[in-house]
Design a protein that fits this description.
single chain; 673 residues; alpha/beta; ten-stranded mixed sheet; nine-stranded parallel sheet; 21% strand; globular; binds beta-D-galactopyranose; binds zinc ion
């Protein structure tokens, strides 16, 4: 099944609602305020296991029934949580074996949240018992539009190293490798005398005197993501059986700082892909990271509209300095998600808590109440989302794809590598930033996706590359595509074994180059670049001793450890071209390179300096989102109706500082997709 909830039309609006923290009088007030703000959906019960099942097998669901009834009477839909995210004290007291364990053997105690081992059969059984009770009671409730499994699976318990997980890891390995000989080969266990002679000897990569086996670490990452996905499937399958026709989701964390779940494997298992996003408020390009995460979420959703389950109305409570949002930023950030494919804008949380670890996290209803700037912005956002409702269901299209792969990320960032400065997202986000600056919309897609519609494909830091990915990229280029591959790509196979004969083994022939040795740079070291395109720019982080095997040199190093050696090359293959970037250029160099590649592949660029311009395409019209992140009014070419202001745009739209426009552009008959 794969379906958006029928009851949610237009752009859904709401947030996590935790009425159990408040007296009943507040519930009535909440329902009135939700109606005032235009809230259409709330997620209820996420952390209420302790109240719903106060002791084993004794369920108290009546209060939740009252909440559901009240919301239904007020015209608000419910995304009902299965409440299994945070087990109650009685459960861990009775069954301490469900508690997760760190790599160093420390047991994590209850008292926070999510203190459960993903492989624990005891936890699984208790969770499914609660899900059964909830589904039996609420499956037919008229407010119910979607099920919300657990919460941010893996947020705090993504890797459990306990004995139960160890046994589960061994079963997973047996399925993967069949016998010990294949496992020993894949893990390269002749190295450091690690050869296994019995399955029972195999453990998770617990804290060891020095680097644990890299393939063991990589497989443990794969296993851990699968174990959590398995938990999702168990709850989902039960819900599909007991509550047929109601879509099921769980909220992802597709954010730069979260790396533990392979969401490309998870996406196809969801009825609706949901996403939580929190700004990295310390970054001055936090809105670009937002765009990146939103594009990646759309990739995980395979292009379908997705559900923004959580973001923050203003500050969070868990960063080092919790920066409040500027006036207008709430709406701008919200519409940036919609521009990139979200058909729901929801928040953590509805009403700010009085107690607990998140009492200083902003909420739609702040501690100070409704005579506040924040509440007025919330009401304004509700109006805006209603006004742009017809956008729902339309799709984003992109000419450029960046390949993103969590397995490559896990492998690329293992310990014992040539330079700690080479991290998976570093170059990828620099290239993304340069494209963002040029107004180029990007799809972030998994290797193996159909690339035929893209003018340009970028494979940054694709360290781990399978043979099939290498073959697909070759045929993409042969058929006329422009491919950019960067350093630290195509180095190893799926077992993290080096591809021999000169780096990067997976792409050497396609790129027409071969590298014999890496020359990482010292911290902060800059090397001058020469060649028309990159003259005046600097190389940073990484260089390598590369020789041409058919490719042309586009730029080279002037000084540093490898003067005269190529840094950027281009190889014509079939009717396309494969470029290789052997270093990290500075910002100026990256911008020049990206501009050149867009020109070479026919990708349209528009420079709007700090103004984000993205289109969604529907059958009748397309929608031009203009998000002004600057402190000046801007003018952007547009013809149609601005759904936000209601104004008609004949040639251009004027967008005040910090504000937004969504221009409906009629698609001429005959030009429809
Ligand atoms: C999310 C989580 C919410 C809340 C929020 C605070 O990660 O799902 O329950 O904790 O963060 O920012
Ligand atoms: Zn465990």
């Amino acid at each position: 099944m794969s379906a958006w909830p029928d009851a949610l039309t237009g752009i859904a609006f709401g947030g996590d609602y935790n009425p159990e923290q408040w007296p009943r009088e507040t519930w009535e007030q909440d329902a009135r305020l939700m109606a005032e703000a235009g809230v259409t959906v709330v997620s209820v019960g996420i952390f209420s296991w302790a109240l719903l099942e106060p002791e084993q097998d004794r369920f108290d669901l009546d209060w939740l029934g009252e909440v559901m009834d009240l919301l239904h009477r007020s015209g608000i839909s419910v995304d009902l949580a299965t409440a299994t995210a945070s087990p109650p004290p009685w459960l861990s007291h009775q069954h301490p074996e469900i508690l997760p364990q760190n790599a160093d053997g420390t047991r994590l105690w209850p008292g926070g949240r999510q203190a459960w081992c993903p492989s624990s059969p005891v936890f699984r059984e208790r969770a499914l018992s609660l899900v059964t009770a909830l589904a039996q009671r609420f499956a037919g409730h008229p407010a119910l539009v979607m099920w919300h499994v657990s919460n941010e699976l893996g947020g705090h318990n993504a890797r459990c190293f306990c004995d139960v997980s160890a046994a589960d890891f061994r079963r997973w390995l047996e399925r993967r490798y069949g016998d010990l000989e294949h496992l020993n080969d894949a893990w390269g266990t002749t190295f450091w005398s690690q050869r296994y002679t019995d399955w029972e000897q195999i453990l998770p990569p617990r804290t060891a005197p020095t680097f644990p086996n890299p393939t063991q670490q990589l497989d443990f990452s794969r296993f851990s993501s699968d174990a959590l996905l398995d938990h999702y499937r168990a709850e989902r399958d039960l819900l599909h059986r007991l509550s047929p026709g109601v879509p099921v989701t769980t909220n992802f964390m597709v954010m730069s700082h979260v790396r533990d779940m392979d969401y490309f494997a998870w996406g196809p298992e969801m009825d609706v892909v949901s996403q939580d996003h929190y700004l990295e408020a310390h970054r001055d390009d936090a809105h670009v990271e937002l765009a990146f995460s939103a594009d990646l979420t759309r990739g995980v959703a395979n292009g379908r509209p997705w559900f923004l389950m959580e973001h923050s109305p203003s500050a969070v409570n868990w960063q080092e300095r919790n920066i409040a949002k500027q006036p207008g930023q709430l709406r701008r950030n919200s519409l940036a998600h919609v521009a990139r494919g979200a058909d729901a804008v929801c928040f953590f949380q509805w009403r700010a808590s009085r107690a607990g670890a998140e009492k200083y996290h902003s909420a739609l209803v702040p501690h100070a109440g409704t005579d506040t700037r924040l509440w007025r912005e919330v009401v304004e956002l509700g109006r805006t989302l209603e006004a742009i409702g017809e956008v729902a269901g339309s799709r984003v299209r992109a000419d450029v794809a960046i390949l993103f792969d969590w397995e490559a990320r896990w492998a690329a960032e293992l310990d014992s590598h040539p330079s700690r400065d080479v991290t998976y997202l570093d170059l990828m986000q620099r290239i993304y930033r340069a494209l963002w600056d040029l107004g180029v919309t990007v799809d972030l897609v998994h290797p193996g996706s159909d690339l035929s519609s893209y003018r340009m494909v970028v494979a940054p830091t694709l360290y781990l590359t399978t043979d099939s990915t290498a073959a697909e990229l070759r045929s993409y280029v042969e058929q006329g595509g422009l491919l950019l591959v960067s350093y630290w790509s195509g180095i190893v196979d799926e077992h993290d074994h080096v591809r021999l004969g000169g780096y990067p083994g997976a792409f050497r022939d396609l790129l027409g180059i071969s590298t014999e040795e890496f020359f990482p740079l010292r911290a902060g070291e800059q090397v001058r670049l020469g060649g028309d395109l990159l003259a005046g720019a600097a190389a940073q982080v990484w260089t390598e001793l590369l020789s041409l095997r058919g490719a042309d040199e586009v730029a080279g190093y002037v000084d540093g450890p490898l003067p005269g050696i190529p840094a950027l090359t281009r190889n014509e293959v079939g009717s396309g071209a494969a470029w290789y970037l052997a270093t990290r250029p500075d910002e100026m160099g990256t911008a020049a390179l990206v501009r050149e590649l867009c020109a070479a592949s026919g990708v349209d660029v528009h420079q709007h300096g700090g103004v984000e311009v993205v289109r969604r395409h529907g059958p009748e019209a397309s929608y031009l989102f203009v998000l002004n992140h600057t402190a000046e009014e801007v003018e952007v070419a547009a013809t149609g109706t601005d759904l936000v202001s209601g104004g008609v745009c004949a040639g251009d739209v004027r967008v005040p500082a910090g504000s937004v426009a969504v221009v409906r552009e009629e698609v001429p008959q005959g030009a429809r997709p």
